[in-house]
Every structure is written in C-alpha cells, then in structure tokens.
Automatic annotation (TrEMBL):
It comes from Pseudomonas chlororaphis. This is N-acetylglucosaminylphosphatidylinositol deacetylase family protein. InterPro entries: GlcNAc_PI_deacetylase-related, LmbE-like_dom_sf. GO terms for molecular function: hydrolase activity, acting on carbon-nitrogen (but not peptide) bonds, in linear amides.
Length: 251
C-alpha cells in the first residue's frame, strides 16, 4: 500500500506540485455520462462521495441524470482506539453526516437511490469477491460507474476500486476511477499516476463552494482525538485541495 502523508507538513504534494495537471485534457459531462444514462457512485466510506466527485454529483443532478450512490461501509473504524469517537458512535454519526453533506450539495434526496452496503470498515480486500457480487446486483445496462482508484494507496479504496471494476466489466458498463489520497502523495511520486487516462471536469465557483461546504458536514473527520494523538482525516491541506476548480477522472 502506498503511504498516505496526511500531515500538513507536505507542501509539495501531487495536487499542488504535479506539472502534468496543467496538461490534463478537459472533458464535458456528455462524454462522461451520455444523455439518458445513470451515474453510479461507489464510496468506500462516508465522505468519499464528496472527496471523489462532489462536483460531478452536483453537475449530474443539475442536468437531471438519475443517480445511485452505494456506500460500502459506515466508516466506523476511522478513529481506532478512540473513546471520544467510538465505533458504536461513528456507525450512527457518519451516515448522518453523509445525509447532511448530500443536502449541502443540493442533491435531490427524495429521488436519489442510496444503497448502504453494511460491510465492515477496514479489511475490505478480504471480502473483495463478495463486494463485487454485491455491487453487480445493483448495476443495469445504462449505467456509468465511478469509484475510487484501484491504486489510491488506501486498502479499502483500492479494494472497492477493484471490486467495482470487476462488477462493471461483468455488467458490460463503463467504469471510471477517481483518486482521493493519491493527490496527497509527495510530488516526487507524480509519475506513478496514470496521466494518460486522466481527464479534467471543470467546476464553476459555486459548485466548488458547495463541495467544500459539504465536506465540512463531516464533523467527525474534522476532529481527531488529541487524547490518544489521533489527527483528523480532513486536515487543512485536504480541505485546501477541494478549492481546485476541477475534478480529475481516470477514464
């Protein structure tokens, strides 16, 4: 697994240091999700739907595309060893944060098809086959599937990417990957990203603002547990990355 430097002591990370970002070709919505097709977004943990493609979700909703969100886990293992944020508390709290985040994105919650997988947080690679079968049950021929990149550097993200790719291949539907933590690798590792597959979806100012507002709905991820030396997941540098006026998608 690629190490993920979440510390704010990494000023030159891929997201703000990679020269290739300037050369990524743009893509329009119709090329990503053709008219009449449904978009399926598969999130390993609550919050990943915003960090991966919170902008894309807004654009899709604005253009009336049907949406399906699959939340694989409840994210309850995000604060290991914490009494402040115990797994029992997080299993309830994190899905509630997702509801608020999607509301802040302006998504039509009354018509959004939202599947909660109930898989245990962490260790998804051990249940990858089962997860792929689960995802496949919810796919149909007019879908375009988006999930985390198979080499993102987080075991759960990688496993969900692989499982989603296999399910999409069996269903014969398009599959695209979105990096999350790979953007926070040191800039010296920029050559490890598949730039030849990268496309840039441009976002306007309001879409970016709503995406950042939605990320702040994840209060549990904005807080660590100082008592046990646990840092927050959504550090200032992660939130700063969300100011980017585009999202990168690997085709």
């Amino acid at each position: 697994m690629k190490p993920i430097p979440l510390s704010d002591n990494w000023p030159e990370q891929v997201w703000n240091g990679a020269r290739q970002l300037l050369d990524v070709p743009p893509i329009n919505l119709a090329s990503l999700v053709p008219p009449g097709f449904r978009a399926v977004v598969i999130a390993p943990h609550p919050g990943d739907e915003v960090l991966t493609c919170g902008g894309l979700l807004q654009v899709l909703a604005h253009h009336g595309h049907p949406l399906q969100l699959i939340s694989v886990t409840d994210g309850s293992a995000s604060h290991p060893g914490s009494d402040l944020w115990s797994e029992r508390r997080l299993s309830v709290f994190r899905p509630q944060e997702s509801v608020e985040a999607l509301r802040r994105l302006g998504l039509p919650l009354h018509s959004l098809k939202w599947i909660r997988g109930g898989f245990a947080d962490s260790g998804l690679q051990e249940r990858e086959h089962q997860l792929s079968q689960f995802i496949g049950r919810y796919l149909r021929p007019d879908d375009v599937v988006f999930s985390t990149w198979r080499e993102d550097g987080n075991d759960d993200h990688d496993a969900v990417g692989r499982a989603s790719a296999k399910a999409a291949a069996r269903a014969g539907v398009a599959f695209h990957e979105v990096p999350v933590w790979a953007w926070h690798w040191p800039a010296r590792d920029e050559h490890l990203l598949p730039w030849h597959r990268a496309r840039k979806l441009r976002l306007d100012t309001w879409t970016v603002a709503r995406k950042r507002h939605a990320a702040h709905a994840y209060a549990s991820q904005l807080q660590g547990d100082p008592g046990i030396g646990l840092a927050p997941t959504l550090t200032p540098v992660v939130l700063e990355r969300l100011r980017q006026s585009y999202e990168i998608i690997f085709m």
